[in-house]
Amino acid sequence: MPLVEDVKDPQGARVAATDQVNGAAYWKKTSGLMWTVLAIWFVAGFGIHFFAPALNPIHVLGFPLGFYFAAQGSLIIFVVGLFWFAKRQNEIDEEFGVQED
């Protein structure tokens, strides 16, 4: 059942009406995805930096490993996370029939 269906308003014009049950399920999945991504970003943004001093005795390409992870690892996680979020949100949109054309 699609999330949005065509109905007519009192003047006879076609408008979109949202089914409340599907709307709640859609929002639950979308907000769950949002909180998952925010948790991953929090860990990548702060967690890596928290453990950086313990990793600094190890060197990669002349840089301390903690510094390298903080500088490169968190950025890589952010970019991969953006693509994953967009893909997953499109899947949710298709499931509820509100995808973009």
Record the SSE blueprint.
Blueprint: E1 4-8, E2 14-18, H1 20-55, E3 59-60, E4 63-64, H2 65-96
Antiparallel strand pairs: 1-2, 3-4
Helix pairs in contact: 1-2
Structure characterization notes:
With 101 residues, the chain is of the alpha+beta class. It has one domain (4-96). It has 2 helices and 4 strands, in the order E-E-H-E-E-H. The strands form 2 sheets. Strands 1-2 form a two-stranded antiparallel sheet. A two-stranded antiparallel sheet has the order 3-4. Helix 1 runs antiparallel to helix 2 (65-96). The longest helix has 36 residues, at 20-55. It is elongated and about 70 Å long. 3% of the residues are buried.
- Cα end-to-end separation: 18 Å
Q: How would you classify the quaternary structure? A: single chain
Assign the structural class, choosing from mainly alpha, mainly beta, alpha/beta, alpha+beta, or little secondary structure.
alpha+beta
What is the share of helical residues?
A: 55-70%
Organism: Falsiroseomonas algicola
Protein name: DUF4212 domain-containing protein
InterPro entries: Na_symporter_ssu (IPR019886)
Keywords: Membrane, Transmembrane, Transmembrane helix
TL;DR?
Pfam families: DUF4212 (PF13937). The protein has 101 residues and is of the alpha+beta class.
Looking at this protein, list some descriptive labels:
101 residues, alpha+beta, two-stranded antiparallel sheet, 67% helix, elongated, DUF4212 domain-containing protein, transmembrane, Na_symporter_ssu
